[in-house]
Amino acid sequence: MPFQKGDYVLLEYTVVDKDDNKVVETTVEDRAKEAGIYRPDEIYEPRLIIIGESKLFEPLEQALINSSEGQEITVEIPPDKAFGQRDPGKVRVISIREFYRYGKLPKVGDIVEVNNQQGRVVSITGGRVTLDFNHPLAGKTLVVTAKIIKRLETTEDKIKYIIKQYIPRIELEKVNVGLSQDGSVVTIKLPIETLFMENMGTIRARIADEVGSRFTNVGKVVFIDEIEIKREVEAKPAEVKAEEKQVESKPESQQSSQ
User: Fold this and answer.
1) pTM of this prediction?
2) Any residues with CB less than 8 A from the CB of 175 and at least 6 apart, and which?
3) Are the beta carbons of 61 and 49 closer than 8 angstroms?
4) In this structure, is residue 254 part of a structural domain?
5) What is the CATH number of the domain that holds 181?
6) Does the residue 227 lie in any domain?
7) Distance between CA atoms of 61 and 173, rounded to whole angstroms?
8) How high is the pLDDT of residue 91?
9) Which residue intervals define the domain PPIase FKBP-type in the entry (predicted)?
10) In whole angstroms, what is the distance from residue 170 CA to residue 154 CA?
11) Tens of pLDDT along 211-220?
């Protein structure tokens, strides 16, 4: 069955710079290691994509709609459909004193923020810093290899992957999502360890807000915290146990004489 806008899918992909054949982004761990761009803090797994809503290159999105589940596709994305052409006007030179003022010492390759814009330090010469505010992939033709691993069919599965967008390292098998009979109430039970995560209250509020906005029949999202109380069985002192065993081992005549 073909895909259509609004479908929730899990997408595996690799993006390559056509000019130098270098991998610039991937969801596949082995591919990242082979390309020398692996980062231990990155999570390598298929991404949740909502076709027609998630930000995708237009040629890629169209190719995905025409593909089937598990089918690998390769799409070439020209600069105009990717990150645009390079704009020489976005390359500027500023005095290095601007950085000293904030106690910073820039290095070539650094990403810095100037006037709320991020730029890359291209060169430092004679007290002047050349910054490039173009996107690093501006002017590049990209080749994207992608595959839809799975289409999410149930509301429960869709909500689970929405949760993972906000808590990327959560184990989905530990997440329980339930719906009321009329679908107006969503019940979410997260692993107890999430209680200790920073800003968990804000994260829950955002999850609830997104669930409410994506599923218009939902009027309430309920989070359940379940804490199991573990009690240790009180053990008898070792000496008491030894004494009991000693009494049990005596003949009845000896016990009665005592």
Assistant:
1) 0.81
2) 160, 163, 188, 189, 190, 191
3) no
4) no
5) 3.30.70.2210
6) yes
7) 29
8) 95
9) 6-106
10) 19
11) 999 999 999 9
